[in-house]
Design a protein that fits this description.
Largest sheet: none
Strand content: under 5%
Order of helices and strands: HHH
Distance between the termini: 35 Å
Number of strands: 0
Shape: globular
Number of helices: 3
Structural class: mainly alpha
């Protein structure tokens, strides 16, 4: 099961692309993605989940 959690973390990090989420939201999104991976649901990051991420995510910090 740890691999599913790592995969979910990677998917969320890739989608965030430098943005950050509040800790509680990040944890909830990762767990939702993990559950979808375990259940074989596609898409993993559906429109609703992406919308939630986009609403809560901070802007990336410029280099």
């Amino acid at each position: 099961m740890a691999l599913f959690l790592e995969a979910a973390e990677a998917l969320v990090a890739d989608y965030l692309n430098g943005r950050t989420l509040p800790e509680a939201v990040h944890k909830a999104v990762v767990l939702a993605a993990r559950t979808r991976l375990i259940n074989g649901e596609v898409p993993i990051l559906d429109e609703t989940l992406r919308s939630d991420i986009d609403r809560e995510a901070s802007k990336p910090i410029p280099p």
